[in-house]
Amino acid sequence: MEHFCIYPRFKDAAHFQNYWKKGNGRELKEWSGAKLSLDGFEEQSQLYFQVDELGDQIIQDFYLNQSYQQASQRLENCIRKGIEKQNDVPESVKRLFGFTEKSPDWLDRDLLNIGAETSMRVGRDALITLRDYSLMGGYDYAYLNKPLVHTGALRKGAFKRLSETLNFWVNVTRKNAMNIHDKGYESAIKTRMIHSFARYQIKKHVPNWDVKEMGEPINLWDMTATSNGFSLILLHGIKKLGNEITPKEELGVFHLWKYISYLMGVPAGALPNNAKEAVENFYRWTSVQPPADEDSVFLAQSLVNESLENPVLRFQFQRNFLNYIHVSSSKFLLDDEVFERLELPKVWNAGFIPNTLKTGNKVRQKVMSREKLIEKGDKIQQHILKQYLEKH
């Protein structure tokens, strides 16, 4: 593999400076106690040119000599029954399960479950934050979205992407879901293969992919940023919506996503253990990311339109109100500059929904036990997922 070097090319750009000095970046810094510095950039940035080599080898050894569906079914058997009962798989597949079936020394399963319980406890707020802050805000990073563009995700539509992402997130954030052979463990490994297969397709069909500029497709550094979207940004968003999160719960969420990302091929040493490390890593990653481009705007508009066309809801007035909820939430959770770059629509009284959610959360946390909140939040999330999957 050709060796490339990169530097923090956007460290002096307005979008980078404004985010970290005036926007959500400043809030992240103040909350986490992070020290924003480019020290360590050279070492960390090498992840931009690194990928999940084992996953890619499995695509070559296992997926390309049969249909994708056949390979996925056989892999599913390995996940659910264990690799020791599978004799007809290549060495690369055996190495994968030799890795995933061995718990790392740093893994704390009690902390994993605290992270899962926290994810369930905040109910609908988690789904709003993931959609209107993590996902929508992620579209502002132009290069991060290029694999979506080149694998045809723009044509598939936002409803399909949301259904798949919601299904993955719910599967990996239930209690004990990351136990070996369980549903979350299965989802992490399947998603790992999806990433490697997508990279294979991009390498095959996009010969002009600019590795020096955009890094490898679905590279390990971008994967750490994606993990931050599910942990750091999720926590920031639900806190902004009035949810009180304990230090132990914060650590639980980061631990959960460290393990999920580790199973998906990201080195444990590249993943944060807490908010401080996450913000410091995120700061360095954002220094190489340009702001939204035409593809970013297209993805953002597609996500906005999804609620207006959502087949889960029967009547148009319901879809219009859902759209109002999501656009209002993005307006509240995103920086104004990001909101404008993505050309999101203006709505009347945009603060009404977020402020209502904040007030409701403060009341609920006073009158309901943590156990009851977890139970209710899980039911809400499972119900919404079921609605999406039935229409998927």
TrEMBL record:
Matching Pfam families: MPAB_Lcp_cat
Segments forming domain ER-bound oxygenase mpaB/mpaB'/Rubber oxygenase catalytic: 133-350
InterPro entries: Lcp-like (IPR037473), MPAB/Lcp_cat_dom (IPR018713)
One example GO MF annotation: oxidoreductase activity
Name of the protein this chain belongs to: DUF2236 domain-containing protein
Organism (species): Brumimicrobium salinarum
Lineage per the UniProt record: Bacteria, Pseudomonadati, Bacteroidota, Flavobacteriia, Flavobacteriales
